[in-house]
């Protein structure tokens, strides 16, 4: 088994304005990822196709996975029991283990899925994890470059592979500075993927051909970004990841807005928000994130300027088997694939692909009447504006009504209501409504429902010829008969 790709998928690059990813023809890429971090170690070959086919049908376009992750198994073995490293040495990778990773990435390409690949999880650098467990330190400044060069070369011809460093650890951790380790790893990737000797703080234009991000931890809401401990001189950082975290009160729209306003523009997205069915506190106290909590983070972040969104499920990221279920991991990974929030991803994708959301301008709360400026975690209204088509997109996490300060002009606007729970798009009074306007220019709109879990999106425009047809139609994201891969090849002797 080699690391060669089939070449079926189109490579991605960062848009000219630095805000999002796009295909080579300039079409925006709908980045909707799933955190299947431990897939190469815990999902058997016979199940990989099912998982990938399911995620594609649900509208996912990206999988976030880790090449070396000791979180669930310190020896980092494949599902067949092959250890990732010979004698635990980063410079002696086990070919049989990485052959399975090759196969997994190839399968993702055949299913039309991109992969955000982490060479190592952060605890292999720092020696500890988020739960306080201690681990052997495997990665250091001496071997980081050579391993990354080897891995980058292995997948240099895979158009569906993008790169992420960090792995849930900040580069400054418990008084130690690990930044040079990550810099060497980035430079190793450049050598392996591009065949070029690039400096981490130079060659900005060259690094654009190898977009890399950094996966931060969530220490606090002030220290949860790629850029929390880096600065703009780090040329290797091509896009910004946030970990808004698994707490209940995270206001991720603020985090996105902070990065969106940076002078050095980089695409930003919430790459590890609250996972569905993840405890809302640590240690767990019996409350878990439901689909509504997941949806809020998705639309808040998109409307605040993010280029995409990453979903996660408590039992999927860790590939929990039936026998491993407990009070925290309450489902096995197979059943968890059909969680309510995961099945609603197709509606999120439909919204992204049916609108010009990537080109939208986030609006601050000045567009809202004073009474509507509620920062509460169930009430915060996020608005963005499509300048090209003069449309407003308004996310109301609890439905209800909102007063908007729309531009002067015709008092009659067309309004559609998009239901992110069902994918339905509905109008009122013949698919358009007359927005009530006060003399001071305030427009009042009322969602079809309100209350916890009753989130709605108002799509508002003023062009008469622009609001006639349904603006969002949910498509079929499953694989065609021609695209569907053959059955799993029994290529692994074990």
What would you note in describing this structure?
Strand 7 and strand 8 form a beta hairpin. The protein folds into two domains: 12-358, Glycosidases (TIM Barrel, Alpha-Beta Barrel); 361-466, Immunoglobulin-like. The protein contains twelve helices and 21 strands. Helix 8 (252-260) runs parallel beside helix 9 (291-303). Strands 9-6-5-4-3-12 form a six-stranded parallel sheet. With 494 residues, it is α/β, with parallel strands linked by helices.
Give a topology summary.
Elements: E1 12-14, E2 21-23, E3 31-35, H1 39-42, H2 45-57, E4 62-66, H3 95-110, E5 114-118, H4 123-126, H5 141-154, E6 161-165, E7 172-173, E8 176-177, H6 179-194, H7 204-207, E9 212-214, E10 240-242, H8 252-260, E11 268-270, H9 291-303, E12 308-311, H10 333-336, H11 340-343, H12 345-354, E13 361-363, E14 382-386, E15 391-396, E16 399-405, E17 414-418, E18 425-426, E19 436-437, E20 442-450, E21 456-461
Parallel strand pairs: 3-4, 3-12, 4-5, 5-6, 6-9, 10-11
Antiparallel strand pairs: 1-2, 7-8, 13-14, 14-15, 15-21, 16-20, 17-18, 17-21, 19-20
Helix pairs in contact: 2-3, 5-6, 8-9
Shape: globular
CATH class of the largest domain: Alpha Beta
In the CATH classification, which architecture of the largest domain applies?
Alpha-Beta Barrel
Number of helices: 12
**Amino-to-carboxy terminus distance:** 14 Å
Number of strands: 21
pLDDT averaged residue by residue: 90
CATH superfamily of the largest domain: Glycosidases
Largest sheet: 6 strands, parallel
Indicate the proportion of strand residues.
15-25%
Q: Give the strand order, joined by hyphens, for the main sheet.
A: 9-6-5-4-3-12
CATH topology of the largest domain: TIM Barrel
In percent, how helical is the residue content? 10-25%
Gyration radius over CA: 23 Å
Number of domains: 2
Secondary-structure-based class equals alpha/beta
Low-confidence residue ranges: 1-7, 481-485, 487-494
